[in-house]
Amino acid sequence: MNKDMISIMIVDDEPIFIEEIKRLYDFEANGFDLVSEASNGKDALEIFDRYKPQIVISDIDMPIMDGITLGKIIRSKNIRTELLYLTVYDETEYIKSALRLSASDYILKFELSEQILEDKMYKLKQQILQRKKTEASLLQNLVLTMYQNNIPGKIDGIPLVDENIIHQKFLFLVLELIQPLALITATHVNYNNEIGLVTDFIKKVNSNNNLFYMGNSRYLLPFDPPKSLSEQKYFNILSTITNNLKQYLETYHIKYALYILPKPTDLMEFQKIYYSNTHIFDIKYFVEDVKIFSFSQHYLKGMDKTIQASLDEKASVLKKSIESKDIDKIYSYHNDIMGELKKTRNVKTLIGYFQSFYYYLENLSHQFAFDIPVPGNCYHIDDVSIWLLKTILNITNELGCLHIDCLSNTIQITIAYINRNFSKTDMTIDVIAEQTYLSAGRLNKLFKSETGITIYKYLKETRLNNAKHLLSTTTLPVYEISEKCGYSSSQYFSQVFYETFNMTPNTYRKSK
């Protein structure tokens, strides 16, 4: 992707129409980088986070996921991508529904021409360039505003701002109130009450300082530095302040991260450092217990291409392991993938992988007529890992990796009942057969003819797979796990486990 060009993606289920757009308009010659194409909204989302195109040209009426839904999801991520819709419908309400999503514009397909494309693209380009210019001066204007109340002179009630103040040097502290990862939809946590508490604390530390909002749940705190100290001493000054603030924040259970610049810097230089190091704000999602980061330290930028190739390969094997019900490989490849993602320290890569896998699991679950939950608040890669593994195992257990859409209603009912009730110690074939109004013998014969295994074997595998999951992900004692998996005797459970896996439950736990 060329950073000097405006990135763009085209989404249309008619390849010939995409080719027509490219024929009519020379994107590269006009400063646009066509980074990707997709044939429906779902495919577009899977690659969206990899490129974060600044413009998406999308058909409205598409199979699998239409353009309106695609636009809603893009907007839910709080991403300021410009949306240009294509449609064959010249209907006011239909167009209004698109524009309510903050779509930048639309084109009627039957009116498409070289001139219309040129006009629309020029308009979008100017909007993006103007926004970039505005953002470049945002911090400067914000900080100038900070000092208005401290400037003595006023004309007609308007404070006089001495622009020389932008050349004064400060120590800078950025407080970020952490928001959950926007895995599928953005979830915003309201910290209004907490900010009041933090502001009160800052005033106690230094009555001359206040917090100033920077956007993205971040607040800026500049400190007047003592003169002519070493960087280490400046670091110690900020460390004392941040450690006190850290204790205060944790008293109120506030999720936060602190970022410091431990050398006196003027506002313009801080602006450059801030915007050239935005990757630093990803790191909190990948490290344990670290709450304070320094803009002066080196943090990993970008990602080795070999890591992406490795992720793609392992994800492919993991999907095959899910479909073949290979629990050991599921654990192994899931852990490997999460380990690789931790190395990247890249939120876009993490979310891109998650969304790709989420839609794969969603599609798999829909084949068997049940839904997977939308992920809850995830503040760390470990939260994502736990949710994914739990969902994968739930699907594996629910489906038993049987081609359930090819099974009779009676066998589908039987499988669903076992999956919901395997933890009951009084579960017998007779009890299961009562749900289908067939005799135990007839049901068992039908079950084996359709699935290739007996009801007893399916029940046993379901219980033992859940036991392996609990042994790997919890510290519950073996006797509690045996009870949760339908065994009234932990001794009998251990015996069955050993006969099946050639190791005791405790040995299996240690191997994980």
From TrEMBL:
Key word Cell inner membrane present: no
CDD domains, per the entry: REC_YesN-like (cd17536)
Coiled-coil boundaries: none
Keyword field: Cytoplasm, DNA-binding, Phosphoprotein, Transcription, Transcription regulation, Two-component regulatory system
Residue ranges constituting the HTH araC/xylS-type domain according to the UniProt record: 412-511
Modified residues (4-aspartylphosphate): D59
Function of the molecule: May play the central regulatory role in sporulation. It may be an element of the effector pathway responsible for the activation of sporulation genes in response to nutritional stress. Spo0A may act in concert with spo0H (a sigma factor) to control the expression of some genes that are critical to the sporulation process.
Name of the protein in its database record: Stage 0 sporulation protein A homolog
Native species: Diplocloster modestus
